[in-house]
Amino acid sequence: MLTFLQQLRVDWPAASERASSHTLRSHALEELTSANDGRTLSPGILGRLCLKELVEEQGRTAGYDPNLDNCLVTEDLLSVLAELQEALWHWPENSDPGLAGAPDTGTDGCLVVHVVSCEEEFQQQKLDLLWRKLVDKAPLRQKHLICGPVKVAGAPGTLMTAPEYYKFRHAQVCKASALKHGGDLAQDPAWTEIFGVLSVATIKFEMLSTAPRSQLFLALADSSISTKGTKSGTFVMYNCARLATLFESYKCSMEQGLYPTFPPVSSLDFSLLHDEGEWLLLFNSILPFPDLLSQTAVLDCTAPGLHIAARTEMICKFLVQLSMDFSSYYNRVHILGEARPHLFGQMFVRLQLLRAVREVLHTGLAMLGLPPLSHI
């Protein structure tokens, strides 16, 4: 699973050695000494702990299941808890504010978000409370982000592991690129990184475009991978690459003396933007983007209750719509015009507009942990 997370460019700190549950096991045994009543336990089971008091301390209105009472403490459960504890202590100091504790606050200033399926929510709440009970410096702030079930569209009962899913999407990306460019590019080292990014973009957009609590249907058809498919992550990446090509073309022409250097922004005449598509990009994407960031970029860890909401679908849909608007505009309007002085003014304001579009796309992709591509 760690390899799969690394393929998806998800940060998960790994300790230099396997997380040890020795300390947790000792604490658990101390708590369990008076609770087992001398009964013989099955292998791997240490006993039961009562969590009811902790539930009441946290407050039932906070979202913990009121039926939480006894927790069966097993070696496997302690191993999972030890991994969480190890990850907490090895989290990078420069990680996102609010997710890792400040150096002078330790775990008191840390927010732990449990991302868990709806089927495993009850068990994860047990893990949350067990962490508090067994570890003196367990994170004080723990939130739960619940995700709906994931199913394969049109194929009930189809089972696929996470690594198999990644391999399947990667093969589709390679196949689509071979059809577009000709030849088996998967064997070309220059394309290895590109195919990896496109595969991750495909998976992240497919999964994050649905609200976390909603049921997700995976569409495994090849048509979902095409750069022309306007609902896919590859489409967004394709338009990022088109922007990169545009600005590289301007740079090369400028170095050849065809175009002058870019003038100060304050000297540009934005009244030269006449096309409806230009104002569509400005008013539907560039100007609303700061408000979108305020709604999606930071998890609301101060909200009351156990559960937390993430609005990943908003940023995915925004980036797809922006890519559609840009693609329509770019296909219709010639940005780099003839090298004539009287045309430079309009060319520069259009380039400045598309600079802003590029910045919005890159920032949005960064929120999803995706690097922009300069070519596809």
UniProtKB/TrEMBL annotation:
GO terms for biological process: arginyl-tRNA aminoacylation; tRNA C3-cytosine methylation. InterPro entries: DALR_anticod-bd, DALRD3, tRNAsynth_Ia_anticodon-bd. SMART domains: DALR_1. Residues 236-376 form the DALR anticodon binding domain. Pfam families: DALR_1 (PF05746). GO terms for molecular function: arginine-tRNA ligase activity; ATP binding; tRNA binding. This is DALRD3 isoform 8.
